[in-house]
Amino acid sequence: MHPAYSVIFFTVSSGTGYGMLFLMSVLALIGRLSVDPWFTWPSFVIAFGLVTLGLLSSLLHLGHPERFLKALTQWRSSWLSREGVLAIATYGPSGLFALGWLFFVTDAQNPGPIVGLLAVATGLLCIATVFSTSMIYASLKPIPQWFRRDVSTGYLSLSFASGALLLGAIGAITGATAGFVSAVALVGLIVAFVIKARYWRGIRNALPTVTAASATGMDQGARVRSLDLPHTEPNYLQKEMGYHVARKHGDKLRRVSYVAGLGVPVLALIVGLGSGGGAAIVAAVIAAVSGHLGIVVERWLFFAEATHTVTLYYGAESV
Amino acid sequence: MTDLPSKAPARKLGLVIDLDTCVGCHACAVNCKEWNSGGFAAPLTDTDPYGAEPDGVWFNRVHSFEADTHGKGRTVHFPRSCLHCDNALCVTVCPTGASYKREEDGIVLVDEDKCIGCKLCSWACPYGAREYDANEGVMKKCTLCIDRIYNQNLEEAQRVPACVSTCPVSARHFGDLADPESDVSRLVADRGGRPLMPELDYAPVNRYLPPRTYRSQQSPLNATADSVEGKFLQWVDRLLS
What's the gap in Å between the CA of B53 and the closest CA on chain A? Predict the structure, then answer.
């Protein structure tokens, strides 16, 4: 599948934003979300900014962005519609939660029942929105690398880990979270990359699901090779769904993703947790920047390594 | 509504394509383009049509394959278009309701006024039946020529999809595949017509008739080598050599 920059940016950016909001709602519920305005203001502004920028970026790749309200109507059958509805619905409780925390809560241990309820709603809606994003891909049968359960767990865990990394960096810079969020990010990141490692092994070892013989109605097991294409120049189908990344480049990029997304942040976070002051700030920032770079590479691979059954008509013998 | 019809359509209009007969002339694709450039889903935009990188929207594309069937290789020409699936994921994934399947005849269509051009339906179609019109910003697809098959201004014999009407070898057949007594259903039964990618469970309506088994093909000269005719031909051969 063609790795469109707008969709990569959207899923990483809004994933990080929802991860931050989810973590902040959980921290609020366990009495560990700081009320220091130097921490809370940038955290909420950046979280909402990332979510909103991501959603706007996803509108950019539409043919008719001005009709986007129509996309909220088919939530009964369409995961894309559900994602849109949930993304907009999340603004309500999470916005009120942010306003409550910024303007009314003075004691982190005692935020009061209303802000508590808003935090619960925020956390649940963030999970539901990111899950819907993942199901847009995980519900597509023609793409075996996406039609898997671990696509959802991968999206959810990476969203959480990337949000924790950024919140940990803001916390370190403002001195508001004293390492706790960084420890959460460390665990989240390891869990996410264990899921991704299993996913990558899974798609590599998966048996082909459909053959060119089945795609053309020939006898089962018959070898069917593409001889002539209907057209001389690539068409929409080939440009959109025929994207092909060489396995050796894929493997190299996977190593980049492991090193930047997991190795560097884990080392930095451990160093940061063991030290304090300036070193902890530098470590948390390195972890967040490098981690996001690794997750962008992971997301690029998620699209580039996905193969579509339509390629069976354009030279592939199995998918 | 992008929910599929709650009950199975009364009629399932579709195509039966004979891969044994198809000669790969692309006339069906060309006539499809011709008719639909002025039809329900018009225009079928082309970009750079006479330049170095021509591109454009087609509802019907003819591929050629080399297939090992019955122990021998043969060329199989394979026209590919929308199969108007009963279990059409291209319809259910649509966020706006632009994509829909008609209850009365099972035809899958796009309402271009509702389409936001998110392209998700084209990802959801395993057969590559949907092509995006970058010029108009909407998705386009085969309409089974709804503007021909119900068109009272056409002679009755012309009320078939453009691809069917133009096929010079009658490799394309149009009819109601829900009716077991229809010509197309009988053809499917007689020739063992197949759905494409049945393992994905899209329940396509269109069927493809696989190439027939080869008859043994011996040279007529060898067959008659010992016959009177054969001896006569051998004598002529010697005389001329």
Answer: 6
